[in-house]
Amino acid sequence: MSSWSEERRRNLAAESEQRRLDEDARAERQAKARKAEDDRRRAERRAVLEEKRLEKLQARRDRAQRRQARAAKREKTLTPGNVYRRGTLLLVGFSAAASLPAQIIHFVSISWMLLPVAPALEGAAWVMAAGVAYADERKLPVWVRWLLRGLSMGAAGFAAHINYQYGLSLAGHGLTAAEAQMVGVGLAAVTMGGPLFFEVRQWVLTLSAAVVNPKQRAEDKARRRHEKNRAKKFRDVADRQKEILLAAPFGTLTPEQAWAQAWWDVKGAPLTVTADVIADRLDAEADVAYVLNQAEQTPERLAVEHLLADIFGYGGGDGGPSGTASGIPDSGPRGGAPKGRTALGGKGKRPVSAPPEEGPVKPLEEADLKAVRKLAEALGGVDRLSARNVREAIGCRNEYALRLRDAVRSEGDPK
What is the signed CA dihedral for 388, 390, 394, 397, rounded to 10 degrees? Predict the structure, then answer.
């Protein structure tokens, strides 16, 4: 009977274990299913977000294309700039059309073999005028531009002289002398006017390009002025900068990089720092340290003063009877220079002060002894007392703090 009960218990335990395993497996399958569902939803959300991002990107592209199309359309409208640029070219074309026939008639009347001379002469004036525009675009030397201008005006002047003579030759051929002279002057003027108009157009475009970005011009001017003043102020660094730029391969160093390296070579410190600056800084730190030391004020003490005031419920003092004196040094107001302090002797020198006068030894006050005993309890024993933490707790001088510490230590650990 007992064996049957034992076997039944084992069977029940096995069934219970199997149910637990089945439940664990089912829970694991459910967790995997939930994770797969979560992954699928996250993937769907990512796909939706990516689709929206692409739609927004495409919308921005479409807007940019529309803006470009509108800008291109505005460029084709009758703006003052377009009217001037295109109107000048149209006027130049009329000028060439008016001056060329008279030249052709003049040269053909001499010989048919001179027919190409007229287009060549007129074309030379326009080719040279286009050369001036090309020289301006490529920033060629000024003498090249003036040479091309001279050749253009020379060819146009010769063509104008021929047209003027042709106009005079019309006298007696249905025109009076005055009318023929007027025709000659008109033909000469229109012959010279075309290249002149084109040249004026080129000057206007060049000047307009120079003032397109006044902010950039002002910045370039300020940069040049800064570099000039800097080189004037630090001549030794400027000379070293030139040496570095000449010694380095062309284009490997910028002027600013060369200046930083030259400053370090000459001054021995990072940019804007010199030996005088370091000396002045040390002197200023010495002044501050001296004033704080004379006033018995340090950043650490000021921080601990607030903490101890919260712990013990009293303010710092100078070791007086109540422990709550104002803490103003005898030699002057708090934060001010003591009377014994003198001026600095020079760069790199520390302040000189008069030796303190010895006076009667101040007796230990019972209130201060109680405060130090409380401090020892808070710190965990008198062996943890130091002149510094006693001085910061009481707000007294170092000599008085030493005597307080030794007195409390001699009493032993407070029980």
Answer: -50
Lowest mean pLDDT among 34-38, 104-108, 125-129, 216-220: 216-220
Q: How many CB atoms lie within 10 A of CB 164?
A: 20
**341 CB contacts (<8 Å, ≥6 apart)?**
290, 291, 294, 351, 353
CA dihedral 19, 20, 22, 25 (to 10 degrees): 180
Rg (the chain; Cα; Å): 49
| DSSP 8-state code for residue 113 | G
Q: Please state, as a whole number, how many other Cβ atoms lie within 10 Å of the Cβ of residue 236.
A: 12
| 116 DSSP assignment | T
Q: Which two three-digit tokens encode residue 333?
A: 């107001």
Predicted confidence (pLDDT) per residue in 319-344, tens digit: 443 343 334 344 333 334 433 344 44
DSSP per-residue letters across 148-209 = HHHHHHHHHHHHHHHHHHHHHTTBTTTB-HHHHHHHHHHHHHHHHHHHHHHHHHHHHHHHHH
From CA 271, how far away is CA 255, in angstroms rounded? Answer: 14
Residue 133 CB contacts under 8 Å (≥ 6 apart), including other chains: 202
What does the pLDDT average to over 208-234? 81
Contact 328, 335 (CB under 8 A): no
Q: Across the strands, what pairs with 171?
A: 175
